[in-house]
Amino acid sequence: MDFTSPAQLVGYLAFVLGVIAFIQRIDWKLKTLIAVECLAYTVHFAWLGNNAASFSAALSAVRMFVSLKTRSPWLAGFFLAANLIVGVYLAHGWTAVFAIAAGCSGTWAAFFLSGLKLRGLLFFATLCWLSNNIATGSIGGTLLETIIALVNGNTMWRLWRAQKVKVREKE
């Protein structure tokens, strides 16, 4: 496996963007950086030959940008349907289910959740992407999702702790 191929280099860029994204405590910053990360992922997976993952990443980028402006259930439904239909069409094997599940859970999170719930469902999506990346042979993607799981878990813990302190102060 070539660690310095153009596909892997773009995967490393996605890695950096993803780590920066999940450090954010403000939802709109998180979503914006995830969208840009997904654009890098789109190229990365296309160059690795994983069309289902590439499509899911592209759709995720658009979805995140759109979810910054609206929480329309109709648009959420569109993104869910597109992810399922096109993801299944592009799938080359059973491992495509990971990218499809990541895209669907990310859609639900982006349109209907905020704060800790948003990050919790994105944590599940991270585990799906991690499984996809291991199956695909994405070095940067595997490192990225492992670190994102750790960073997001830490951020969720800090947000939960901050909420708990606010509740105690009100008592």
Automatic annotation (TrEMBL):
The chain crosses the membrane at residues 6-23, 73-91, 97-116. It holds the Pfam family Imp-YgjV. Keywords: Membrane, Transmembrane, Transmembrane helix. This is Hypothetical membrane protein. The lineage of its organism: Bacteria, Pseudomonadati, Thermodesulfobacteriota, Desulfovibrionia, Desulfovibrionales.
